[in-house]
Amino acid sequence: MSDRADLWRAAADAARAGKGSALATVSRRRGSLPMASDAKMLITDAGRRMGTIGGGCLEADVTAQALDVIASGHPVLVRHTLNADVAGDLGLSCGGTVELFLEPIVRGPDAAALYEAVADAIDTRTRGTVFTALDWSAGPRKTLQAGGSRRTIGTPVAPVAPVAPVAPVAPVAPVVGVEAGLLVEPLPRVPRLILFGAGHVGAEIARAAAATDFHVVVVDDRDEFANRERFPSAAEVIVRDLPGALAALTLADDDYVISCTRGHAMDAVVVGGTAASAARYVGMLGSRRKREVIWKALEASGVPRAALERVKVPIGEEIGADTPGEIGIAVMAELIRLRRMGA
């Protein structure tokens, strides 16, 4: 499950329980600031926080503002400027300006259903958009459009223009349209990592991938390895023979494939079945020598050399990784670079 989805589910729980809470969403950044462009935080009326918008005293200030929002029942746009001196005093590494939209969590079953639906869209990798009115003087107005359906709090919020498809490379930041009076939050699909092989290295890659917001799918033909006890953070654990699992998969350009099975023959099955696919990344755990042996066999079986050339072997950033834990970190460093920077 995604941390972002967990935050929306916490909002749904607060709405159902009628507890005072608020959401803080980064809507614009200028300069170099220590938070993601799509950062979001939930604040309760007791001052507790879930998620992060950068840490330090910035979050303390935003929490105080969020408590005012909870009390008033109306959202606000706030701006915080951190020059280099102030950023240093706050324990942050840089400076700039951040604008945030603070909104009270609407109480009641309709609101809870919308917040839950946003979490479901994230967890099921359904693209969508959340539209929130900036002005709640006539009551809260929030609309989710996802998967061809719509959920609304209050009067439906109509988008000004069609929302463009979300590219899989860079994170997509929320946008405040002041003239239109809307906060527009795209819900891009969480990238999917399909991990063939549930051994020790596979378990460490899966753990690091889930912690960095990948939708992790683990595939192995051994149920003593591929199970929920060993992969509690994976979105899916599939126990199936590799040819059957490959036949059931449809790979897209926001998929990442890694083969780290227990043998050359199995790695050859995975690489042969995915090298020419639409997946954004295909990699195999192993040495250059192992690659040449498997590539020779795959070429002989009819897999084009051009398709094999895109497969990354060895995988991971070159940091001298040796243990399974270190290899997991090195591999995810490579995938994060590709996801965030496109190269």
Structural commentary:
By secondary structure, the protein is α/β, with parallel strands linked by helices. The protein folds into two domains: 3-187, no CATH class; 192-341, Rossmann fold (3-Layer(aba) Sandwich), CATH 3.40.50.720. The protein has ten helices and 15 strands. It has helices at 3-17, 56-72, 84-89, 109-123, 200-211, 242-248, 264-274, 288-300, 305-309, 324-341, and strands at residues 21-31, 40-44, 49-52, 76-82, 96-104, 128-133, 142-146, 149-153, 175-177, 182-187, 192-196, 215-220, 236-239, 255-259, 281-284. It has a five-stranded antiparallel beta sheet with strand order 3-2-1-5-4. A five-stranded antiparallel beta sheet has the order 8-7-6-10-9, covered by helices on one side. A five-stranded parallel beta sheet has the order 13-12-11-14-15, sandwiched between helices. Strand 2 and strand 3 form a beta hairpin. Helix 1 packs antiparallel against helix 4 (109-123) and helix 6 packs parallel to helix 7 (264-274). The model is unreliable at 85-90 and 160-171 (pLDDT under 50).
